[in-house]
Amino acid sequence: MSNRTWLFTSESVSEGHPDKVCDRISDAVLDAYLAVDPDARVACETLVTTDHVTIAGEVRGPESVLGRIEEIARGAIRDIGYDQAGFSWRNCEIVCRLHAQSPDIAMGVDAGERKEEGAGDQGLMFGYACNETAELMPAPIQLAHRILRLMAEGRKSGRQPGLGPDAKSQVTLRYQDGKPVGIDAVVVSTQHAEEVTQGEVREMVTPYLSLAHLEGWEVPANRFFVNPTGRFTIGGPDGDTGLTGRKIIVDTYGGSAPHGGGAFSGKDPTKVDRSAAYAARYLAKNVVAAGLAERCLIQLAYAIGVPDPVAVYVDTYGTGEVDEDRLGGVLREMLRLTPRGIREHLGLLRPIYARTAAYGHFGRPPDDDGGFSWERTELADSLARHFGASVAAA
Predict the structure, then answer these.
(1) Are 386 and 323 within 8 A, CB to CB?
(2) Residue 187 pairs with which residues in a beta bridge?
(3) For the purposes of burial, counting CB atoms within 10 Å of the CB of 283, is it exposed (0-12), middle (13-18) or buried (19 or more)?
(4) Residue 12 pLDDT more than 60?
(5) To which H or E segment does residue 31 belong?
(6) Average pLDDT of the residues of the chain
(7) How far apart are CA 127 and CA 139, in angstroms?
(8) Neighbouring-strand partners of residue 189
(9) Helix 198-212 and helix 139-157: axis angle, to 10°?
(10) pTM here?
(11) What backbone torsions phi and psi does residue 104 show, to the nearest 5 degrees?
């Protein structure tokens, strides 16, 4: 890898992107169920298009929540900021097709008198961490998220009323010897008010780029693209149909690491698509935080109805200070990787998921109420002590 240089690109989408509107509604429904019953089971999917929302899926929980689904969806749309011709929280049609969870699935997942509950489905999940940023995330996706999050804050505060909810960002970084060394290009496309000109949109967006970029990195003026196709006034579900779970690379590591394929939003934490992906990130982040590797990838694989993972894989990309097989064994001792073990360790049976629906599920600071608990690094000291002799001898 000596002297090798390359470009790598990641993208993010705002909370007003049609797919993210769906993720937000699905997770708001999940939160509503968990707020009433922490043991509720939810698999909620949403579709949005012009003046229409359909919410479908399988649930097992209090009947009282079903009567509030329309209210929950309108509240999510209002908070995102949609009150425009073609899609408004006030009057868009909302159809609810949630129904009871399949008893066949419940039978395989529920704990019996003598056994721990099994995984909610088969599948493989990945967690990743690296030392490119303070959040131990790949720099391109972290920067792309940061730009849009700052723009949304400006729009919602009233400082930038000319910006609309729908937006996308794309960041290309230069790498040398495996480390990001500068910005090659940035693309921002954002919905805007009818009366705003292309030049004014660029003026509105530019300050957020300055606020978001990493210290010492400058963006070449001729490599900063704002609304490259021109006007962008028709946005959100009125401009493009959205579905839950279509932005899984945006949700995770921006393409810097593999993805198992399972989406997160709308799924309660018995579904390992979500909880095991969080656990894998948690373990990988603690490995890097402990100084045991510069990069760490963890894969977990499950079978439906079986509590323990059928396989655990650890890869430190040649940057590790300790044996990967031994590291994997220690991590399994520190965190019981059954659905229940993950939920209890990370405190996942709480209404903490609507906030994850945009700007990434990872690389966010842990919240006082338990949100983003998988970003904590409390295992790092124990890991460093456990492997201290090995690291010192390396």
Answers:
(1) no
(2) 170, 225
(3) buried
(4) yes
(5) helix 18-36
(6) 93
(7) 16
(8) 168
(9) 120
(10) 0.94
(11) -65, -40
